[in-house]
Amino acid sequence: MRFDTVIIGGGLAGLICGIHLSKRGQRCAIISSGQSALHFSSGSLDLLGTLPNSEEVESPVQALTALAEQAPNHPYARFDAERFVTLANKGAELLREAGIDVIGSAEKNHYRLTPTGAMKPTWLTFGGYVHSASPEELEWKSVALFNAEGFLDFYPQFLADEMRRKGTKCNVHTFNLPELEILRQNPTEMRSANIARIFDNEATLNELANQIASRIGDEQAVLLPAFMGINSQGNLKYLMHKLNRPVAVVATLPPSVPGLQVQTLLRRYFQELGGTYMLGDTAQGYQATQDKISALYTRNHGDIALKADNYVLATGSFFSGGLVATNTEVYEPLFKVDVCYDSEREKWYDRDLFQAQGYEEFGIATTPTFNAQRAGQPIENLYAVGAALAGFNAVKQGCGAGVSILTAIEVAEQILSKM
Known about the structure:
Helix 1 packs parallel to helix 9, helix 3 (81-97) crosses helix 11 (400-416) and helix 7 (202-213) runs parallel beside helix 8 (232-243). Helices cover 29% and strands 23% of the residues. It is built from 11 helices and 22 strands. The radius of gyration is 22 Å and the shape is globular. It is α/β, with parallel strands linked by helices.
C-alpha cells in the first residue's frame, strides 16, 4: 500500500499531524493500536502552565524566553514567539474545524475547574466546562451542583468547599433516573462514558431537566458532572433552555467523556479528509535504505508493506509503549532511534511522589526539524512528535497537549515543504 505519509500513533499528535497533511492533499495513514492519552483528558488542553522553576505562567508566549533558559531542550525552545503563536492559533483553528468547541488564547492562560475543585491554568477549554479568567473567583455567586446517585468518580463536597472559598455558594444535590438503576446493577457500569450514553435520549434528558427544575431555587447556574451525553453541547443547550439559566459541566476523573469526544471528532475529520485510520493495528517492523525508511510492516497487514515518502512517530511515551524502560536503559522499541535519558538509574525518579520525576523528561532525540536520529545521525524521512519527544515534563509544566499539537503541525509543515 502506498501513502504520502504514514503516522504511527492515533492520539492527539498523530491525528493533528494527519489532519494538517490531509488538508493539503496528502494521502495519509494513521496506525493506532487503540486507547490514547486523549481518553484521560479533563476538559481542557494545556499549552504552558508552569515553568521548570515552579513559577506559574500567565502568558505562555511571554514565558518562552524564561522556558528556553531553564529547559533548553524543551521542544518549545525551537520556536520563536511569532512561530509559537502561529502554531498555537493553527492548532485551535483545526480543532474548531473538526467540530470541537474551544475557548482560549496562547497570549494568556485562563483557569478551568478541576475534578477536585482547584483552578488550573490552561490554554483551551472545551465549550460548556466551568472556567474563569481568575483563579480566585467564578462568574457566579451561587450555583446548584447535581450528581447522579452512585457515581463515584466525582467529588461534590470537594468542589463545593473550594467554590465557597472563592465566594460562590454551592448547594449540592443528587438525582436518580430509571436508566441509572439499570447501570447501577453492575458497579463497573457506573462510569462517565456509560452514563453519558443515556443522556443522548431526549426523554431521559427531559426527565433530568424536570428533576432539576423542581429542586433549584434562585441559584444563578446549574453544574453537572461531564457525562451529559456524547453530544454534550446540544444537551447543555437543551437544559439551559428548559431551566432558563446557565448550565455547565465539571470534569470527572478519567476515563473522560470530553477526551472520548475529542478523539472521535478528530478521527472523523481525518477520515472525512480522505485519511486512512487503521484502528487496532500495531507497527512491528520496517525496511530502511541508507538514511531513509522505505517500508513499514504492521501486525494486521503481515507481509504487505506500507510504503510512504515520510513517516511520523507519534507513539507517545511510556504510557502508550512509545518508550520502554528496563532496569538499565530506556529505548524506542520500533526503529531503535536515539533516546535521551539519564544513565544513572537513581536519577530516573524522586522518592517524593509529588516532585518532578526524572523519567518524565526522557524521550526521542531529534534534530531542530524533529527528525529522529540513530547513532547521532538524522533519519531523513522519519520524524517524532508529541509525548515521544525529550526535554519536557508534561505534568509539572502543564504543556502536554500543546507540545503534541504544536510539534505535530510543525512536522506536517516540514513534510509539506519538501513537496
